[in-house]
Write a structure and sequence with these properties.
- The structure is a homotetramer.
- Chain A has about 325 residues and is of the alpha/beta class.
- In chain A, about 35% of the residues lie in helices and about 25% in strands.
- Chain A is built from 12 helices and 14 strands.
- In chain A, the strands form 2 sheets. A 7-stranded parallel beta sheet of chain A has the order 3-2-1-4-5-7-6, sandwiched between helices. A 7-stranded mixed beta sheet of chain A has the order 9-10-8-11-14-13-12.
- In chain A, helix 1 crosses helix 12.
- Chain A is globular and about 65 Å long.
- The two termini of chain A are about 20 Å apart.
- Chains in contact: A-B, A-C, A-D, B-C, B-D, C-D.
- At the A-C interface, strand 8, strand 9, strand 10, strand 11 and strand 13 of A face strand 8, strand 9, strand 10, strand 11 and strand 13 of C.
């Protein structure tokens, strides 16, 4: 039994991470208590969990091989070097180490990046496209929830050359409220969300540069709107583009089938079936479906996942499995 | 057009009050800006509204006849004497002036009462039982949402002597989330409430003494549990007791019919129909229904209302109509 | 008091129509009882309403000037000529008379059109663009809910020439469940909808040809996906296009402001404010907001309305007001 | 790997049963296809499952040791003898075999009981109170969801003699919509349930006699109301009674602690913590909490469980584990 630490177990992603790790047959989670941005009551846990102060001494003393940071970016920038120094590898669930340059980070997160060397070193934790780098990395930047759904849908088609980039890609994204975190705000209070639906960060969400980095799209080619659904968990993205060089939806599906044939967490939906949020809730799957108007080339891809699992904690455990040499699906099926 | 002031228009009750008053044909609402406990963004209003500072000068200068306080009890205790001094009559939506003695207030609200003379003077604003006192009052204590539903259901039956008090009365109450106010808390955040249902203040809710005062029940005769429904607005109370001296549900209904025959906001449901929350949403009605097991005398009354309307802002306007000599239903149907 | 008839008052649109007409100061609604596709229990109504059999004799005998058909298309095709013959003008809320040719109807509704002459005669009931024809029409085809939101957003910009049509327009539409009608189906049952979000009729919804007819777009220029929100009422459409010849969102807003300056039911949202579903619930408003990335020309318009009001019953009453010479907003504010 | 059959896998209980059995390490589920009352589309299953016709030949040919009937009572009465005859033991999730006499069945289910001999033979499947009989039974009547929550709360206190039966017990029950089954009805359609809360079967729910049978209460001592919550799954019962001979909530808790000390699926909540539906969702736990007003003896017990798990499919698997000699928690933690 290998011990791994979690900082930020009171947030929704951290709590989901705890839940997954408690069922994982090879690791034992330990809560590392840090003064956190949101210090609300802990989410109920079934078993009592080991707790330690969030210090290098505790990490070294306990011999923790790996620490998950489910903390805000500024806390992650502070803790990542400390944990690495103490001998633990790090998977960070925040946006701190996802963008490639400090400048880009500052542009989107409105603050300086205090760890440019680590930023340069970090591996981007999207296993379907970065598996080898993740396995050997000291520091993994776990992807954002929206970019995971978008990149898994878009990149295989771009690689196959079937998207007409001159027309651009539209990604209309909808997320459950848990994606906004557990800290109480008016915007996420029940009476404001129930029976409502609203858009935010239109064309300027900080997850956009993650999509551009992974897909290779230019800013002008990618239009993204985030929207808040009156439900707890799940992201569904409706992605529009012009297909080129394909005569049927089946040809697009074949590209996905081929690219993802060995991927345990990607499910391709064939005609007549459309991914929805119930189908992915509480799973680490990303479901993909395709519609094509063959005459005009207009295509729609639906990409659905659970923002707390494949969009956060589940993907983090998938990355941990790669880093520690376990079967990639361990604890996730 | 008579001008009336509102302090606390940013909360849910205050905002509902604004909405009702904006459609009222005889009054024009004015927002009085007070430093408030919750200073979140205002709820969207259709028309631009007159605003004034919340001072005696403004109240006197504008000649406001009446001011609504949709503020926390401690703010109401501070503002009520100021407004009265400035020549306005006051309807207070908080719990500040509902209980009959300062001692009782301190027991339930955990703080001293700073205005005992006003407490003694205040009329309890349940029109169906206190109409005459309300009409002539300077200060009206608008009832709590739970006690309104309970007292309208219980008191006519107690007066008619058909409740066996030795068995006691059980009132199992359920409320929508808007009853908890607009200030963001973890307890009222979407992800904690959706797909959940939970009890709170079991046997010790501060609305209990209001029920006892109006009904004449003893503490030991009344068991009350408050519970949070995953919906925005509405209170439904399921009230259990042993009936005595009645042979059918119709006899119980006849008591209600007689007592409420001239009441515009009480609707009695006859057999086969049961009040529910959809039926009262956005109305000033309280709906009542009865079930009786004639053999054993076990009886169940369902009482339903909208906590923001008949349970708060609507009842406050009903009280205003009485105080200013308008038809009681003006602006409320 | 002019009497108007309603066929189909048991469905959600018909019930909403009843509610609006009961508050309308100039008309008295009468329920016309027809054997209907869905004969479920009536939605609760506050007042007892006059009822008549749905026959030409009753319509003529009562001297009904106007009849609303809130019925499925095949019933509307059967009843429209009967009602016209009996001397009533007709507003049909179904899709029976919206498309311009019988062929187009058959393509999208999968059945022959039995009233081609009436189809040719019918006026399309979108007041903001067809006010004059509606006022004098015998038969008005009340628009679909999705096309109302789409056309009000798109057509002014197309007329102003600021949409680059070569890039096409994407309309990602989300609707509350009441849009699917009141007849119980597995798809609209609570347990299937709550905590879920799903797409349907991707690129082939029968509302698409209504958008093309009113906007003048070609099929290949317009991509439309309908999606089901876990809420009762409301439609929000997120519309993407490339703007041409405009340098700022304000220029796009100015086009709307000018085009809709005299329109009582269109509200333009300026920067920092985004339309959402709470803001339009239970109103006849359509709210419009704009975001532009000036560098690339990528633009997003949000269009929101209540599918049962501006998307159905409210717009039908707006049309009735035009037809009967009443102020257009009567009963709707 | 022992094979077990499921009839009725398209309903919510049957689908939940499939899900649990697919993760169970010792059994392999087989779908038995019966013409069913509700023949809607199957709930999505992760793996392809073996299917057989629902015939004695198939059951015998496959050597099925046990068959679950997740069917309406009249279908269960038809199938139970067939399955037993074919050599399988039976766990029936319907109400067909729960009541002790055919007369009682007819009173509550409004139809004759066609299998009185099997009714007499059936063991009532509440493991916490009937473990030994279940282990050896050929036919187990899996308890109703409401009675499971009620009996687990009430019976230990009745056995301990701490409930004053002259005052009677009130059980105010609230259930998620999945308890009403998957067949689409107006009552369970999304638009009727969302933002609503309503009571049904007041004082005459067919689950009442199950509570009386297990607890030993008389009809006149037990008042029960069922109510529909706007959520998918979960039952919470608020149970009121007069305690006698106890001086604190802790004494009541001690009774539960002692009675349930070896029970893996009962959790006792101590002061300051109250069971809610989130805490039991997707688990086989029943959570119990107690509040007491020591002066008057008024007591409130909260009992919460997931109606599809401990209230149906999970408890059925618990019974299967007992019948087949597996650890009772196998596949359920």
């Amino acid at each position: 039994m290998v011990h791994v630490g979690i900082v930020g177990h009171r947030g929704y992603s951290g709590a989901e991470l705890l839940r997954i790790l408690q069922r994982h047959p090879r690791v034992g989670p330990i809560q590392l208590e840090h003064r956190e941005e949101f210090a609300g009551p802990a989410i109920r846990n079934r078993k009592t969990l080991a707790q330690l102060p969030c210090t290098p001494e505790a990490v070294r003393g306990q011999g923790l091989k790996l620490v998950f940071l489910a903390t805000p970016p500024e806390v992650s920038m502070e803790l990542a070097p400390v944990m690495l120094e103490a001998g633990a590898r790090v998977i960070d669930l925040s946006g701190a180490f996802r963008l490639r340059t400090p400048e880009r980070y500052t542009t989107w997160y409105k603050e300086p990046h205090t760890q440019p060397a680590l930023l340069a070193e970090a591996a981007y934790g999207l296993p379907e496209f970065c598996r080898d780098r993740i396995a050997g990395a000291r520091l993994v930047a776990n992807p954002g929830c929206y970019p995971t759904a978008a990149n898994l849908a878009i990149r295989p088609l771009l690689e196959a050359g079937v998207i007409d980039r001159t027309h651009g890609i539209v990604c209309d994204a909808k997320s459950g409220v848990s994606g906004a975190g557990r800290k109480p705000t008016l915007k996420t209070s029940f009476c404001e969300v129930t029976e409502n639906f609203s858009a935010y960060s239109i064309l300027k969400h900080r997850h956009v540069p993650e999509v551009l980095q992974v897909s290779g799209l230019e800013d002008a080619e990618f239009s993204f709107t985030a929207q808040l659904l009156p439900l707890d968990r799940g992201i569904l993205e409706t992605i529009y583009f012009r297909a080129t060089g394909v005569a049927s939806a089946d040809e697009l599906l074949a590209i996905y089938e081929k690219r993802y044939q060995n991927e345990p967490f990607i499910r391709i939906f064939h005609s007549g079936h459309v991914p929805d949020l119930r189908g992915v809730a509480r799973t680490n799957f990303c479901d993909l479906g395709v519609t094509l108007d063959a005459k005009s080339g207009r295509a729609v891809v639906i990409s659905a996942l659970d923002n707390l699992v494949k969009g956060a904690a589940g993907q983090a455990v998938q990355n941990m499995n790669l880093m520690l040499g376990y079967p990639e699906t361990e604890g996730l099926l």
